[in-house]
Design brief:
With about 500 residues, the chain is α+β, with helices and mostly antiparallel strands. It contains 16 helices and nine strands. This is Protein kinase domain-containing protein.
Length: about 500
């Protein structure tokens, strides 16, 4: 049986003696269009770049003309560098100038602002902060005390208040003039003459008081950061001896904003937590009685955490690491604001104030396993000018801000897990966590049977996921833990529907 190969439709074999010619399919017009199109596009791009350059140059010319005469050459030069960069034709010196400008003005923490603040801003405002004296205040109730000082409620006196005593009932106007006064405990070590001029760790309560005054004054000069902290009014040294005003004692002054802390709320002193804060934290927002209680509770906790993390992020942008975030150091006001207080343990990573790579100040109940804001092999802080100039590099290398993000994670656990709200239990939690190499999932697997994680497990375990990413060890690159800014973007803070 013979098989016939299928023929190719439309084709026939051509003899080598004859050749078949077909019309040429080359279209010259189409090829010309294909060649001309990118050329025209390139020319159009060139025209756009030229127009951008003209626009930038006109702005630069106007800015240079409006600038003071001494600054006009610099503005014109920088503007020319920006115009060259916009047209994709930068020069090497121009790139160097723009890089230096960006580093000085926009890196974190900002070296230019911190140098100006330390050498210009601080001396200018120091006289305003130290204008007080003991005669300006009437001490009232004692609010609390610790290793480094004792705090009192006080009244800022006016000439009409001469008859006011410690137990006098205050008028509405006088209540608005209430203050918080902190008497710094004095010790034999005293204060070194060059303490705030060189980067070093505070020794004793007297220098710790100076650290707190320094930190609060720096925060006060930055309105954005100041909005998240207790309002600092200044300091004074008592020149008289009357009551608690012993002669030579150092005092710090803040505006009275609340006498209730998050610690009071967690201890049940304000009522069952977190519902005791719902009226304040949800102020201005309608609360439906039909909303499940656990959803209302987590919304209150989210409100507190969001404010704490926002405040820490603002401090970190100044180069300040608090190192002692805990419920007792968070004021809760009647209008639902959470204010950070107590900066005696804080460190300024821009100037090196209160920094030592080998030692640190911390609360073991809330501190991370590394216990230090920077690796131990990090050098001691140089002079404040050099420290501020190099601070962005130090921040990138050591990520000191992750110290505070760990403590914020412990705070989240304490608010969400009812069994961890008592102070003694949070200490036990940290001890147990160390036994499992700070692995929160392992701790929950072996020790979590006695705890209620329902608030953390809501919304597909959003809260638990955030806690695990905050309460964890650093890796070999000093990372491995969310920053407070990254935590604010976590899905835990997304609305629940």
């Amino acid at each position: 049986m013979q098989h016939q190969l299928p023929s190719r439709s439309g084709l026939r074999p051509a003899s080598h003696h004859s050749r078949e010619f077909k019309p040429c399919s080359f279209n010259f017009k189409n090829r010309l269009k294909a060649f001309v199109r990118p050329v025209v596009s390139f020319q159009a791009t060139g025209l756009e770049l030229a127009s951008i350059a003209d626009a930038v140059q006109s702005v630069v010319t106007a800015a240079a003309a409006a600038a003071p005469a001494p600054l006009q050459p610099a503005v014109s030069t920088i503007g020319g560098d920006i115009a060259a960069l916009a047209t994709l034709s930068p020069t090497l010196p121009g790139l160097g100038r723009l890089t230096a400008l960006y580093y000085s003005l926009f890196s974190k923490p900002n070296p230019f602002w911190n140098i100006w603040d330390f050498y210009v801003g601080a001396p200018l405002t120091d006289n305003l902060n130290s204008r007080w004296s003991s005669e300006d205040f009437q001490l009232r109730d004692k609010l609390g005390g610790g290793n480094f000082g004792i705090t009192f409620e006080g009244l800022r006196l006016l000439p009409d208040d001469q008859g006011v005593t410690t137990r006098s009932k205050l008028t509405g106007d006088q209540k608005k003039r209430r203050v918080v006064l902190k008497r710094v405990n004095m010790d034999r070590q005293g204060v070194r003459s060059d303490f705030l001029k060189t980067g070093t760790l505070a020794k004793g309560s007297a220098e710790t008081g100076m650290v707190e005054a320094y930190m609060c004054a720096k925060i006060k000069r930055n309105p954005i950061a100041a909005a998240s902290c207790a309002e600092y009014l200044g300091y004074f040294t008592s020149t008289t001896a009357e009551g608690a005003f012993t002669k030579g004692s150092q005092w710090l002054v803040w505006k009275f904003e609340s006498d209730a802390t998050l610690g009071d709320a967690l201890d049940g002193k304000l009522g069952p937590f977190p519902s005791c804060l719902e009226e304040f934290m949800m102020a201005g927002r309608k609360i439906s009685e039909s909303t499940p209680q656990d959803k209302r509770d987590i919304n209150v906790i989210k409100g507190v955490m969001r404010q704490v993390l926002t405040g820490l992020r603002r401090l970190h942008r100044l180069g300040i690491v608090h190192r002692d975030i805990k419920p007792e150091n968070l004021l809760v006001t009647v209008d639902g604001q959470v204010k950070i207080i107590d900066f005696g343990a804080a460190v300024d990573m821009c100037t090196g104030i209160n920094f030592n790579p080998l030692y640190g100040m911390l609360d073991p109940r809330y501190s991370p396993p590394e216990e230090l804001v920077m690796p131990q092999n990090f050098p001691r802080a140089p002079a404040p000018f050099i420290a501020a100039l190099l601070s962005p590099f130090a921040w990138i290398y050591g990520r000191p801000d992750l110290f505070d993000s760990y403590t914020a994670g412990v705070l989240l656990m304490q608010m969400c897990v009812p069994e961890l709200r008592p102070v003694a239990n949070i200490r036990l939690f940290n001890t147990e966590l160390r036994q499992y190499d700070n692995d929160l999932n392992r701790w929950r697997m072996y020790r979590g049977q006695k705890y209620d994680f329902s608030l953390l497990d809501r919304n597909n375990k959003a809260g638990w996921d955030l806690a695990c990413k905050l309460i964890t060890k650093r890796d070999q690159y000093n990372r491995g833990r969310l920053s407070v800014g990254q935590a604010l973007s976590h899905r835990f803070f997304m609305p629940e529907f």
